[in-house]
Design brief:
The chain is mainly β. It has two domains: about 120 residues, Immunoglobulin-like (Sandwich); about 160 residues, Glucose Permease (Domain IIA), CATH 2.70.70. It has no helices and 26 strands. It starts with a strand and ends with a strand.
């Protein structure tokens, strides 16, 4: 989401006691869910000696906001551009500014954009995730870390579990639902099917997010904004998207830079103990 505002030269409005601020909003293509587009905003709050820029995050998830500005004869309280992380349901004074010399002309123009997640956030590599299926059941790993078919580059730490269509999928960690898709009906062993995957994406408290892919049509059992608990039923598995057969694709990722993420190695708990690197061909019992 981006926004612009501009203040006119103060000498042109010397008979007014107010700053003229123009807001223009437009959707950011990277954000697929329109449900939250009006829940993130910037507000200019005029004080006697400065103007404060307040970030409103009325969503249930963590966001990273980048603020940029073009200005003349204006001083900012921190270096611009500024990138910072904002927690859910918060109002935060991001920065402030003032006119350096009021006898001269001045102007400013801001824009901001935002991403779900926390750019550069620290995360716990020792966290033990629940296997993404029901306790007491087991599923065979058909592609693990660094899998040759599709688990490479930024997706190298994903795991594929073989599952019959309609198998209940369970959350691996507490979090909030930030993206879903369940309208697709097709899949196949080609990358041209990638855009047809049904999925659930859940953001965790540290800003990382888990992705559950290849779900069946109408197989999502949670809603956007729902808070889910570890080991909660969230979906039904399927065979949509880039898939060589019915299975569940699971991964956890974090933002490494603006609009760029990569998966991280995860540790699972199982009935037989801790799993640090799932082995292809082996089945694990959820516990």
């Amino acid at each position: 989401m981006k926004i612009h505002w501009r203040c006119l030269n103060k000498r042109l409005i010397k008979y007014s006691f107010y700053l003229l601020i123009i807001f223009v909003l437009w959707a950011k293509s990277a954000i697929a869910q329109n449900d939250f587009k009006n829940k993130i905003s910037l507000q200019a709050v005029k004080k006697s000696d400065r103007t404060e820029v307040v970030v409103h995050n009325d969503t249930p998830f963590i966001i990273t906001v980048a603020i940029r500005a073009d200005s003349k004869n204006v001083s900012f309280s921190k270096p611009i551009p500024d990138t910072a992380v904002y927690r859910p349901h918060t109002e935060t004074n991001a920065l402030s500014f003032h006119v350096k010399d009021k006898s001269k002309s001045w102007n400013y123009q801001f824009n901001y954009s935002w991403e779900m997640g926390a750019v550069g956030a620290r995360y716990d590599l020792g966290y033990r995730y629940h296997l993404p299926y029901q306790d007491g059941t087991s599923h065979r790993v058909i592609q693990g870390f660094n899998g040759k078919l599709s688990h490479n580059k930024e997706n190298r730490y994903a795991v594929d579990f073989q599952m019959p269509v309609g198998t209940p999928v369970y959350s691996a960690r507490d979090g909030v639902v930030i993206k879903t898709e369940e309208s697709n009906t097709i899949g196949g062993p080609s990358k041209r099917y990638e855009k047809y995957s049904n999925y659930v994406v859940i953001q965790h408290a540290d800003g990382t997010q888990a992705e559950y892919h290849h779900l069946k049509k109408n197989g999502v059992l949670v809603k956007l904004g729902d808070h889910v608990q570890k080991n909660q039923r969230i979906a039904l598995s399927g065979d949509t998207g880039f898939s060589t057969g019915p299975h569940l694709h699971f991964s956890v990722s974090h933002l490494t830079a603006w609009d760029k993420g990569e998966t991280i190695p995860v540790i699972f708990r199982s009935q037989s103990g801790t799993i640090r690197e799932p082995e292809v061909g082996k089945s694990y019992v959820a516990f």
